[in-house]
Amino acid sequence: MPSSEHIACMSTSKLFLAPCASSRPQDHFQRTVRDGVPDEFYQQYTRSDFGESIGIWGLVPNLKSTWEKLSVGDFVVFYWGNKQYKYVAEVAGTEHNPQLAKELWPAYADGSAGGDDQADPWEYIVYLTEPREVDIDSEELQGELLDEDKQFTMRFRPANDRGHQRIREEFGSIEEYIESRTVTTFDTFGNNDSTGKSDTDDKASGDSPPDHPIFNHLSSAVEPAIFRVAAPPDLWLSVVEYRGFPIDETYARLGDVERGDVLLFHSSGTPMDGQLSPSKDALFGVAVVGDRGTKESPWTWKEQGSDSATHPSSFLSFDRLFLSGDPSAIDCTTPLKERSVNAREREITALLKASLSKESIKKSLNESDGNLFDRGYVVEMDATDESSNGQKLLSQLVPALTEYPPIAYCREFEEQIPASVFDGLHFPSQSSQDTKSASGLAMDITAALKSGKHIVFTGPPGTGKTEVASRVSTYLSENHPNLFTGDGLTTATADWSTFDTIGGYMPGAGNGASDDLEFSPGIILNRFKNRKSGQQQNEPIIIDELNRADIDKAFGQLFTLLSGQSVTLPYTKNSQEIELIPARERIGSTELHQYVVPQSWRIFATMNTYDKTSLYEMSYAFMRRFTFIRIPAPDLPTGTSRDDEEKLEQIVFDYANTWDLHPERKEAIGVGRVWRETNHAVENRAIGPAIIKDILSYICHHPQENIEYRLTQSVISYIFPQLEGVPKRKKIVRNIAKISEIDEEALEEASVDMLQISL
Predict the structure, then answer these.
(1) Residues 337, 305: contact at Cβ < 8 Å?
(2) Looking at domain 4-204, which CATH architecture does it have?
(3) What is the H or E stretch that residue 293 is in?
(4) Which of these, 341, 477, 543, 641, has the minimum number of CB atoms within 10 Å of its CB?
(5) Strands 314-323 and 517-521
């Protein structure tokens, strides 16, 4: 063993483990590491100069913290599957270079790497010296030297500190350990295999995995991992019903799971509720992990029966879901705690139909993993190649699987909209019952959503109606991914018809004839189904300026749908009539011609009160489907006393601070006076703070020192367009013209030209 003095002088190089066991990363390794990238290519995108050729590897954004630990002189060993690390290369440099990554790995840059699966770009670049072939047994490296339970790697990561110390104690340094395991040193970059075969050819010649979306995902995703998750059968009822796995202390290991990883659903047989009979100990489902979400309401039998107000606050959602049984047997309308024992046992039996029993699975596992089912609630499995246990289990299970929507489209929204959704928006102190606070607005919206209503935000222009709708919609999709898959935004127009909202026939490619017509879904139907994959989705839609559309002409059959009834459209797809179905009538999988409307789907519409009488009116039948939430302009002092002027000035300064604008006092009071006269000249005619933000920004950034010029031009630019068509606009303009900071002559000239009024 080396002396302590010798060890102290050894290199401080670190060792990193890189997964490279599936065909796609192996192809990348062959092309950009072993073959190398020539200088005439890489120097187009970087100032770094590594000579005639350099190896290049890349990491995804969520591995940035790991990438930052890399240093020149570190070593990266590449795991090739079959418990073998086959190649090693030394780090020559690192660089964040999205453009180079896009050119080297375009499929990962544009999201096409995995078909319907999302793929992150490999934009955190690692430059590598020429690789060497090594023979490193993963049981030796990970089991003996790193003291890890698993003998494979699914994440790019550094060796642990204890492992580094042990390697240096036993071999002298990381370099000497690598030297002792080196088989071949390549003199130049390039394929040195005289047969011309790549390292992935041998893999391709063997048995290929089943043709199934899960295996397509594993082969295309970046560093996916497979986790076997064991849970009681009645917990799985909640997971499938709510389309999310709650993360509590028992399942804290799920905190290591990342989007794109794969979960194997293992029902452990023994229920949480002792009244239920034991069920099969079996695998029955597979899910591709989506985003993390938050929850407050109780989901599981244990949570619903607990007096404690604290439940797991986070959960894992799913991007794709495959089950062997029938989830349509689950009663989503009755809380789990209120269902009878017989009802829950029937649901469990249906869910575990065609599942793989624990006994039959054990026979196919590698001998070293025969006790896989006895290791704990969450176990990461080797999924690096077709011979690994993870892929073996999947190969057995997938023939029995049916894909189901990954969102809980039969469930209503049951949570709260927090006031924090509106952080960054200024809510003035409540001077009247009409003034909104952030918490009051959040409670109004929550009540509307829980009552099953769509929402129309009304109020004067510039009060932030669209901003509020956008924030609520974004909050729903980001925090409740088990219910919502995104959102959409559109602006209503007078030309809208059912062709725009529902859809209609358009020339397509049916049967190869260019004049064939096929059904193309419209704005609303596209919120329910992904046009590319056909997967169920749930995207709340924001319709700006709703009453600019002729509602009867634009919504047509959607009136019936919004009332909760099924609709059959006068169009066909695959020779079957298009059906619009409320989710409560459809729990299982859907056909191509069916569009399921999730119970939690909502329209968030906006309507300017200025437009209410001048545009299309909404019928009472339509309005009954909506809750109208008014977002008023703030109360402004009506008087011109010193006290009122100071209050007005402070209101402007409060808003300016929120917007990070810094007007002078004369600018703030001038803008405040314009706002006051605009809002008080005519009853029920006002503008909101968004327009004042535009005015303040214009004034603060204009190089002209004269306040009269800047304020007058800002009124012409931002307030006059709001007055077009307003019956009493002359009175509003006349009151503004009396303000001392306004150039009356310039204002009158503009009012004649733009508003056709003379002062």
Answers:
(1) yes
(2) Roll (3.10)
(3) strand 282-294
(4) 641
(5) unpaired
Rg (the chain; Cα; Å)? 32
User: What is this structure's pTM?
Assistant: 0.78
Confidence of residue 643 (pLDDT cuts 50, 70, 90): very high
In angstroms, rounded to a whole number, what is the distance separating the alpha carbons of residues 457 and 302? 39
Beta bridge partners of 307: none
* Helical (H) or strand (E) element with 700: helix 689-701
User: Could you tell me if 559 and 621 are in contact, meaning their C-beta atoms sit under 8 angstroms apart?
Assistant: yes
Residue 243: other Cβ atoms inside 10 A: 27
**CATH number of this structure's domain 213-404:** 3.10.590.10
Please tell me the predicted confidence (pLDDT) of residue 387.
Answer: 64
What 8-state DSSP symbol labels residue 495? T
Close Cβ partners of 605 (under 8 Å, ≥ 6 residues apart): 454, 455, 456, 457, 469, 542, 543, 544, 546, 626
Q: Domain spanning 410-632: which superfamily?
A: P-loop containing nucleotide triphosphate hydrolases (3.40.50.300)
Q: What is the residue whose two structure tokens read 């289990």?
A: 393
The reply to whether 213-404 and 410-632 are identical in fold is no
The label of the residue with tokens 């010029």 reads 709
- In terms of Cβ atoms closer than 10 Å to its own Cβ (0-12, 13-18, 19+), residue 277 is exposed
Rounded Cα distance between 139 and 143, Å, is 5
How confident is the model over 285-328, as pLDDT tens digits?
A: 999 999 999 998 899 988 888 766 667 789 999 999 999 998 98
Res. 345 pLDDT band, cuts 50 70 90: very high
Could you tell me whether strands 517-521 and 84-96 are parallel, antiparallel, or unpaired per DSSP bridges? unpaired
CA distance readout (Å), 684 to 6, 459, 609, 613, 727? 86, 10, 8, 12, 12
Q: What per-residue confidence (pLDDT) applies to 509?
A: 44
- Return the structure tokens found at 14: 């670190």
